[in-house]
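Duplicate of #3305? Posting structure anyway:
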């Protein structure tokens, strides 16, 4: 879930909201949850995968509703029940997650499954402007608490929280290579031979896997709600979560982490290049020290993360072209977004020595 403060949400006609059948969703929430009617729905700007809405009830309480994007969906993607199950299972663990309210799997209500959770107050550091409002000590604390929370996630006993059957525990990278190669083929808007070359290198160079843990799949600063003091208030966006390789989560975090000292650092806004945020090497070192693991394979997983992010990015780009993301007030430069995808593949190739 990419969420923003209330003032950043899109204002809407309360009786007509793109992506929400207001009458039917209101009726379902009134019958199945303690939310007090009537309701106001607003699309929250920023989401580039699932659609996220602010829901305010008659007593002024705020909730968040998540549903898949509009139109045709790729197989296995946008599984709302899976996200709901994961956050429900983690509710009593050291991993901070929003509290769930309800899950609707009756597609006659709103075309797709959706779930509702309590709104979390806090900060989402999703661009340089937000990062610049933070002090250097808060930025440093955010760096540390992101790693502490990732370690807490990787220590969760999956059987004890009822997630032991979430997915296979073996063959994580093989499954990921198959999934994202397939999704690339289904959503690609151009030919990119290097994408296949990187996939083949990832398949032939797989390290010995670590013991399987919960793998968030998209763990990064902008997918966490942070407190003003720099603590993780809630981990969001569980769409890609499974059981698998913990080092892939670390590689993914580093793949998004802009590091001025690294010429192949993530191509996202240079937020984490601000003073106070740790470097990629420092972040990786904290994880290795806390989890007592070697970083010998970290570049492989950084390369894997960049390759996978290219596939995900192509899917997002294709959905924007197809008008499946809804009307959002955050403008996206589609040409720049399209150009960022081959750059990720090129970074993956360099990390793998191709």
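Output from current build:
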């Amino acid at each position: 879930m990419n969420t923003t403060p209330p003032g950043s949400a899109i204002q809407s006609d309360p009786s007509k909201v793109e992506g929400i059948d207001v009458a039917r969703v209101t009726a379902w929430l009134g019958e199945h949850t303690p939310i007090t009617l009537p309701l106001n729905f607003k699309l929250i700007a920023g989401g580039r995968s699932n659609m996220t809405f602010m829901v305010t009830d008659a007593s002024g309480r705020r909730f968040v509703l998540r549903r898949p994007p509009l139109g045709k969906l790729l197989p296995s993607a946008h599984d709302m029940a899976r996200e709901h199950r994961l956050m429900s299972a983690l509710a009593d663990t050291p991993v901070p997650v929003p509290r769930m309210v309800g899950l609707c799997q009756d597609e006659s209500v709103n075309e797709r499954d959706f779930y509702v959770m309590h709104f979390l107050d806090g900060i989402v550091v999703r661009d340089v402007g937000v990062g610049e409002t933070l002090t250097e000590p808060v930025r440093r604390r955010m760096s540390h608490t992101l790693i502490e929370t990732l370690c807490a996630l990787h220590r969760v006993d999956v059987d004890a929280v009822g997630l032991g059957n979430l997915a296979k525990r073996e063959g994580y990278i093989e499954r990921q290579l198959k999934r994202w190669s397939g999704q690339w083929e289904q959503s690609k808007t151009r030919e990119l031979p290097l994408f296949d070359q990187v996939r083949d290198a990832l398949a032939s160079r797989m390290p010995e896997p670590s013991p399987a843990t919960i793998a968030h799949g998209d763990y990064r600063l902008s997918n966490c709600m942070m407190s003003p003091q720099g603590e993780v208030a809630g981990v969001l966006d569980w769409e890609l979560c499974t059981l698998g390789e913990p080092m892939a989560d670390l590689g993914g975090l580093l793949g998004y982490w802009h590091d001025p000292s690294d010429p192949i650092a993530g191509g996202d806004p240079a937020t984490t290049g601000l003073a106070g945020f740790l470097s990629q090497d420092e972040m990786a070192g904290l994880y290795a020290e806390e989890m007592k693991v070697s970083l010998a394979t970290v570049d492989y997983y950084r390369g894997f993360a960049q390759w996978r992010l290219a596939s995900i990015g192509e899917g997002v780009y294709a959905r924007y072209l197809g008008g499946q993301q809804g009307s959002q007030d955050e403008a996206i430069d589609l040409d720049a977004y399209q150009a960022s995808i081959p750059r990720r593949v090129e970074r993956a190739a360099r990390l793998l020595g191709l």
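Confirmed duplicate; merging threads. The chain has a mean pLDDT of 88. Residues 6-118 form a domain with the Phosphorylase Kinase; domain 1 fold (CATH 3.30.200.20).
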